[in-house]
Amino acid sequence: MSLPPFAPNGPMRQTRILMVLPLLALLGARPALRAPQYTQIYTLSPKEGVFAYARISPDGRTLVYASEQADPRRPTGMATSETVVDLATRQVLYTEQGIDAYWSIDGTRIIYSGTAGVSIRHMDTKVVAGSVAPGGLGDYYSWALRDGRDLILTISSNYYYLDGDKAVLPYSKVNSCPGIGTGDRPLISKDGKRITTFVRGNVVVRGLDNCDDIIDTGIKGAKADFSWDGRYIAFHTVKADSAGYEIKIVDLQQRTVRTLPGLKGSALFPSWTKDGRLCFRYDGTDYRGFMMASNVLDAPAVPLPTVSEALPAHREWSEIFPETHAAGAHLEVVLIWAPWSAHSQIAFTELARARDYFAKQGGGIAVATAADPGSEEQEIVRQMKLFGTSLVRIPLSPRGLALTEARNQMPTTLLFRDGVLIDRRLGAQTFEQLRDWVGPVLASLP
Q1: Can you identify the CATH homologous superfamily of domain 317-443?
Q2: Are 36 and 299 in contact (CB under 8 A)?
Q3: Mean of pLDDT values over 166-172
């Protein structure tokens, strides 16, 4: 039966509506499909970098990050200032020389490396307590509350409880577990019972003080932050096409992984709010600053890789840098860096100092740099010109990058002996660190 023409103001308008409504009632109203939503929350100035990760407060209202800007008065040529921003007003609440801030569980304090060493700042009174713990225990802090006591974990896998604003000593160290060792550069869960760490390039979850329930995600990623309920971890990793970085969310119960979709640029260093949102740094041609993602668990989940991407114990120069013949020196040091990493200029400056130092010791060592293949060539060239470096650059392919821990941390420094990779260091290394690391190996050469 054919229907008469539709008349907007005629009797058929009501008739057709009455016919449709029962059908919708029978079928049930379908909820609208949701997806992660992104909000730009704070824009970086054009010449401003960010030293390492930034951290969002538990309530998502305040951001702390280390602002990095050129300063020719400093030995490294850069100045880092711990900066706290009220996101509602976009106003800077305070700024002070320092790096590596992390929020207390209740959001009332932050711990960071400042002019007074390991420091804790009270957000309400603005009082800063210095010399919280010996600096040699490590930085890149993360903060937990375990059995009612504040607990601090450092990048060096050392941890200590707090009595007020002071470390309770002696400190403890993450124990070694069969098959995985201690791991590198950990972050702690909010309840202080588990950590994320790097093992042969993979993000691994394990106990802080035991070897129970070890989960190898099978993914090469960066430092992984725990959600407040401890069920999820979030971190960035190289995109499949190597064109930048994206954020992965691993469900530790279901053993699945989600990828935040629709981000053209690089998304870096996510941290969780208490209500389940993710704050992260974004570097792209469309925007450069910090973003907040909501509905992150609406991204589709897929099973974790069944085959681990763990790096082989034996790796050679010819596998990582097949396009470049080794320089012929017994030792070769290669800095893998990225123009989006604010650590890069420091790494270049300090490596050049180390190169000159070793040259005066009689040589036997070659030094080079290799840029992240996922970064734009024009940005790489611009940065190297800005650095004013005389360090040699060699090519690095996505496949070569995948054979290094640079997917965990930019920059990463590799040490080769007679064409075989014998060691690596994650993060920017100072001249003293390079000297003390490479020097003994150089002295042991025949």
Answers
A1: Glutaredoxin (3.40.30.10)
A2: yes
A3: 98
